[in-house]
Design goal:
Number of strands: 0
Number of helices: 14
Helix content: over 70%
Structural class: mainly alpha
Distance between the termini: 22 Å
Shape: globular
Largest sheet: none
Amino acid sequence: MDERNRRAVLIGAFGTIAVFALLFVAVGADRVLDSLLSADPSLVVLTFALALCWLAAWSLMLRTILATLGVDVPLEKTFFVYAGAVFANSVTPFGQAGGEPVAALIISNVSESRYETGLAGIATVDVLNVVPSLSLVFVGVGYYATTAAVGERLETAVGSALALSVGVVLLVVLVWRSRETLVECLPASVAPRIARLGLGRFDPATLEADLADRLSRFFENLERISTDRRRLATAIGLSLAGWLFQAAALLTAFAALGYSVPLSVLVFVVPLANLAGATPLPGGLGGIEAAFVALLVPTTGIEAAAVTAAVLVFRGAVYWMPVVIGGVSVSVFGVRELR
């Protein structure tokens, strides 16, 4: 690990520790611990089982997208491939944005496909996940507004979701419309810098041609995905199922502590809180937990310590379990070579 990466990891780790420390001081660490110790073990196990269902749904989503590109990943291996991708997203800053290059390398090596194919696949999965999440946010918040007053925190969160989504859409449109220019100009700009850093295996001219070829195939892969409407619809349906499994897992985590929470609240809180994954923390760790607490306390009326305990059970299922499974998967598959 070079000095720059080591510094980024240390900053992310200290940032996560600082966020958790502030959270526990604010809500009371002793009360959180008491709530955790009172949890029903059978319902905690069910929370983890529902998280596995979420992971399975999104792994099938990735398999569907890769099938569009002619990449066949065996069904029994798909789950572990996606878990490896989640692992990459969970241990790098900025969530999906930081983990996508590593996730693409995992997919490339396991499926014996080219790197740009894996990158197109995982990038499409991450972008498509935005579609049902926004639908759940606006439908859920709309329903909530008919039963209770929408507080300032929720208004801010929804506004942030809308602004981020618009920004993502505009960026995607800009990149797509400029794809020919990018293929022509970007490799010429990047290749000499890579060569000077000693990261390339070829001379600048050869490296430039290789980058241009890979970038061109990346955009061709995206075009192939966009034209297969049936598989796109299937992928979006699997994405929606995954979000609903996450909401059900959080519902069960609250039930494990003896609380009943409306599912209609959780279906919009889960995608909203995950926006904190865009923070420069490893997989948003710490920031996402704080966002959940900030959103759930005013919308459920449950005390902050109990909410924090439920969120910790839930995040153990949707963050730490995939990190363990994905870390083992990456180690077993072995990620050594860029194809």
